[in-house]
Amino acid sequence: VTCTQALHYYLHQTDSWRLKGIVTAVLIFDTIHQALISHTGTYVISNYSNPAALNAVVWYLEVLFNGFIALLVQGFLTSRLWYCISVSLLIWGNLPSLLIGHLGCVVVFAVYALVHVHTFEQLGNLKSLSIAVNALAAGGDVLISTALVYILLRSRTDFVPSQRIIKKLIIYAVNTGLVTTLCAIASLVSILAWGHTFIYIMFFFFYSNSLLATLNARKRIR
Fold first, then answer.
1. What confidence tens digit (pLDDT) does each residue in 16-38 have?
2. Number of other CB atoms surrounding residue 162 within 10 Å
3. What's the CA angle centered on 82, arms 78 and 86, to 5 degrees?
4. From the DSSP assignment, how many helices (H) and strands (E) are in the chain?
5. pTM: predicted TM-score of the whole model, two decimal places
6. In 3D, which of 105, 106, 83, 102 has the Cα closest to residue 94?
7. Distance between CA atoms of 69 and 220, rounded to whole angstroms?
8. Which of 120, 141, 189, 215 is deepest in the core (most CB within 10 A)?
């Protein structure tokens, strides 16, 4: 899905080199992230019929690259809010703190896990940090969606065609942020409920898709 959206973006969108650079960086990080997650196949391929290998935890560097992707995507959405003077400074002011805090927690998580976590039993030591990572990600998504909806509601006029477009944009803004927010919550719940499994990994694939879907849908909305 990501590759299809990326191909459509490069073929049909004419953005500045900065925005294309963000998209390219997200795709590179997403590819590295997928490669690192695929390394977990060592459990069922390299160590087939070796139950003792199930106690060892493989690399946790994929969390780091997922944090980079989240920072770029949420940072891009936050930068769009910066140009909207109707945004509450209180709402916007909290967003950079959440983004930086989220990335900081991700870096600490990845470094600590790489150095100190070698078994699933030791993985329990990172439970609080895992909760913080997912809570900050979800908080950032909620604030971004709330701010976008607030801007659009303040932009309503008595002109019927404009009202239809704004209504469509509100639904689109909510749906775009809702996917990543629900995935962050689902990842948080899966860590709380099944902390010694990799179920949470399945929810780490939607930030890049959310960015590409947002960029590719602009012409259709117009």
1. 888 899 999 999 998 888 888 77
2. 12
3. 115
4. 9, 0
5. 0.79
6. 102
7. 25
8. 141
